[in-house]
């Protein structure tokens, strides 16, 4: 935990992310928190799950982030008949050269927008698993490395909606954070009518940074200092989820790792070279809630993961703030 993210580095980070944020907000009205969450996940090298009802701008947000960065972007529309090889790629025999050639699938890009991910079959969903965690793809015993940065932004409708397959736990665990977008406030919705009725402003959105620059920002975030006290607090939170009688499945060590990585990005975005316990506290819901499964009794009593987690967070003392 080095802790030598310099002031100049943090200034660069603020400048570039400020540009990206402003760019996205040209096409997403009144949703600064969701835009900020997307930036945190990108800088922490995580993957983002956007879950909400139809028509609130999930696809719009994913595309706006992808367009803001000059890098390779691919969109995979998940449907029940999408095949695993559409995601990963396939070896095909070339008649002329008489050799097998690899045709890369949809994940070969810096930013992969996986739209309506829970409409694909579990088999196809799981094809994404190796790619997301290991940043590589194996087809016919050959392993192909994915580019850096590599970020999956997946959108899905809530699981109770028709025609969806719930994502398996292992796959949910690979998303650093889950956010919902929510309805815009009245003024923002009216602003949307002004700017969106005739044409979608997304079509005119220009990139304001590139993959190499984002790579540098990711390195800067990596330098942010995490104290022992902050580490212990993160572990105390995830441990508490594992001990909760209301939960059938608690948070994994991967979740703890994601919590701390995301907190480093939040700290850097606030111009700090060290993580505060409050950074962890503020991220506990978006980073942990989607990984938890309520026990049968809790579920029958109408308790959601979010509500149970709220109680758990409240029960773990937040340590004193400080750099050490
Ligand atoms: N907050 C917002 N600001 C600007 N435009 C918005 C906002 N919310 C929704 N829209 C507009 O509504 C339309 C639908 O958005 P989008 O396609 O992103 O929805 P979605 O959440 O992906 O829906 P679905 O679940 O059906 O795929 C787009 O034209 C988008 O510009
Ligand atoms: Mg959509």
UniProtKB/TrEMBL annotation:
Q: Which residues form the ChlI/MoxR AAA lid domain?
A: 240-309
PANTHER family, from UniProt? METHANOL DEHYDROGENASE REGULATOR (PTHR42759:SF5), MOXR FAMILY PROTEIN (PTHR42759)
| ATPase AAA-3 domain mapped to chain residues | 47-176
Quote the protein name from its UniProt record. Answer: ATPase
Q: Which Gene3D superfamilies match?
A: Magnesium chelatase subunit I, C-Terminal domain (1.10.8.80), P-loop containing nucleotide triphosphate hydrolases (3.40.50.300)
Tell me which domain of life the UniProt entry assigns to the organism this sequence originates from.
Bacteria
An example Gene Ontology molecular-function term? ATP hydrolysis activity
Annotated source species: Nocardioides gansuensis
Q: Please give one Pfam family short name.
A: AAA_lid_2
Upper taxonomic lineage? Bacteria, Bacillati, Actinomycetota, Actinomycetes, Propionibacteriales
